[in-house]
Please model this.
Amino acid sequence: MKLKGTCAIISGASQGLGFEVAKQFVNEGADVMLCARNAELLHQAQKALLELANNRSKVLAKPTDVSQLTQVEALVSAILAETGRVDVLVANAGIYGTKGPIEEIDWDEWSEAIDINLKGTVLQCRAVLPHFKQRRNGKIIILSGGGATKPMPYLSAYAASKAAVVRFAETLAEEVSAFNIAVNTIAPGALNTRLLEEILLAGPDKVGKEFYEQSLKQQQKGGTPLEVGASLCTFLASAESDGITGKLLSAVWDPWKKLPEYIHELKNSDIYTLRRVIPKDRGKNWGEVE
Model:
C-alpha cells in the first residue's frame, strides 16, 4: 500500500474527482479527512468510504467552506486532534463561478469564485504548513486544470483563479523547500462531473458557442476517467514522487510515472511550469532591444 501510515485532507471530497481521490487514498491505506460545503453529500461519501475501508483506515468528515478562515482552521484542528498528524493536503475544492462577458457578470459571483478557488487554496495551505514545517515533511497537491494554461472566454473568474494557484504553488514550493515540503498542481483532464453539467446547463449564450460545443462532445465521449487524475494525486502523495515540487502536471499528457527517473533534471529546469514565451522559443529571431 503506497499510502499506509499517512493521513490526508481532501477538500471538495463529497463527489466527482475529490471523492475518487479519497477512494484511491483509502485503498492505498491512508487515513482521510473529507471536507465539502454540502453536509448531506459529504456524509454520504463518508459512509461509502467507511464501507470500503472496512476498519483498515480512518475516514473522517467535516463540512467546511474553504473560503472561510475559521472553518479551515477548525478542519485542520479536528484532524490533528483525531489522528495527531497530517501528511498530505489535496486542495481540490473549486467552482466555475459566474459565466458571461466580464462587463455583464455578477461581481459578487465573480468574487466568490476567486474566494473559493484561489483564497480557499491559500487558506488550506496556510493551515497545514505549521504542522508540516514542525515535522519537516509534507505533500501539497493543488487542482488547477485547463484554465491555467489557456484563455477561457466567458469563464474569466475560473481561468484567472486557476492560473493564479499555479503561480502560488510555484512560489510556495520555493518558500518551503528547506522543510522537505513538496507543492505541486495538477490538471486532471476533461472530466464529466457536475462542472460539465453546469456548463451545458448554462448554454452557449453564457459560456460561448465553441466551449459549449466542446463540452457537449466531451459529454458524449465520456471525458477523462476520474481515476486518471486520482492516480496522479496518489503518486504525488506517495514516496514515489519525493523530490518533485513546484510543477504543474497533466494527468493525461505528461509521463508522470517516469518522472522519478528525471529528478535531477527536473530540479534545475522550468519544465512543467508556467513561463512567458518569447520569439526564440518558437524559432523566431526578431532582434533584441539595444
